Amino acid sequence: MNTTTVYDVILFGQMMKDRIILQDETLTATGGAVYYAGFVTHRVGLRTAVITKLARADDAMLDEFRDAGIDVFPVYDAVTSSIELTYPTSQPDKRTARFPSIARPFLITDMPDIRAKTVHLCPLLQGEISLDLLTLFRKRGEILSIDVQGFMRGAAHDGAMMLTDWEEKAEGLRLVDIVKVDDVEAEILTGTSDLRKAAERLASYGPKEIVITYKKGVVVWVEGNVYEAPFTSKNFKGRSGRGDTTMGAYLSRRLTHPPDEACRFAAALVSLKMEEHGPFHKTVQDVENSLRESNSVM
């Protein structure tokens, strides 16, 4: 008898200790792609599992998941990864990053015996998720999604973030169904700043869907069709986690809706999230109301 637990979404990546330096304040907070995306998928009603890595001494960071009813499967390491983000202006795309501490990469043996309709791999840095591990996920048969940033980002000796092309992109991208990038990453990967052309070039490697975030909104490419939806935030106080929140929202909606609707839903949800610090804590109804208000203005 097969007793493997099946979820709607599995999120795979490291927990983070964030230090966010804004123009008028400095914040310390829990972060990481699994943190921001996890609260989205949970708040919209999906059964969510998070596989993450952190120091055993920091296990209390996971209580926010547990208290919310999100199943979390920790892998313990000597340290918890941390990031320092500096935003010198009010523009959410203008920032610098450094990594004071970095946990070790995931191993195949770190995987618990769980399955999902969709698996989203959102590593922090190059090497965290190997091509072998990506291949293992591909063989499982679920919808496989990745955030490319964790296959492109590296850390210099002083911890400063470096962003370079993904050397294994041809092999890696052919293994996945859905790819998320931002506009800077897309240009490095494809050599063009035209988001539609960049999406087409990324899709030529094999992915069925491309999700691109940039300062004005979200662009989605599916089967040659391009959809776009704007961000409508009144402020950018909660700009950290924008891309991770976008992907959590898009994947959630995409399980039951066509890509154009998933694109609009993701942009509306992220717009609400960026108005407040921390992960998304509103409701699907709040997002639906925001969508209706946007349509009435158009």
Proportion of residues in extended strands: 25-35%
Query: Count of helices?
Result: 10
Question: How can the largest sheet be summarized?
Answer: 9 strands, mixed
With strands numbered from the N-terminus, the spatial order across the biggest sheet is 5-4-1-8-9-12-13-14-15
How does the helix and strand content classify structurally?
Answer: alpha/beta
Detail the poorly predicted runs: none
CATH class: Alpha Beta
Tell me the span between the first and last alpha carbons: 54 Å
Q: Provide the gyration radius in Å.
A: 18 Å
The count of strands amounts to 15
Taken in chain order, the helices and strands follow as EEEHEHEEEEHEHEEHEHHEEEHHH
The average pLDDT is 92
Helix content: 25-40%
Number of domains: 1
What is the CATH topology assignment?
Answer: UDP-N-acetylmuramoyl-L-alanine:D-glutamate ligase
Please characterize this protein's 3D structure:
- The protein has 298 residues and is α/β, with parallel strands linked by helices.
- It has one domain (5-292): Ribokinase (UDP-N-acetylmuramoyl-L-alanine:D-glutamate ligase).
- Helices cover 32% and strands 30% of the residues.
- The protein has helices at residues 33-43, 63-68, 131-140, 149-152, 169-173, 183-190, 195-203, 242-254, 259-273, 284-297, and strands spanning 5-12, 16-21, 26-31, 48-55, 71-77, 81-86, 96-101, 114-121, 143-147, 153-155, 161-163, 178-182, 209-214, 217-222, 225-230.
- The strands form three sheets. It has a nine-stranded mixed sheet, sandwiched between helices. Strands 3-2-6-7 form a four-stranded mixed sheet. It has a two-stranded antiparallel sheet with strand order 10-11.
- Helix 1 runs parallel beside helix 8 (242-254), helix 6 crosses helix 7 (195-203) and helix 9 (259-273) crosses helix 10 (284-297).
- It is globular, with a radius of gyration of 18 Å.
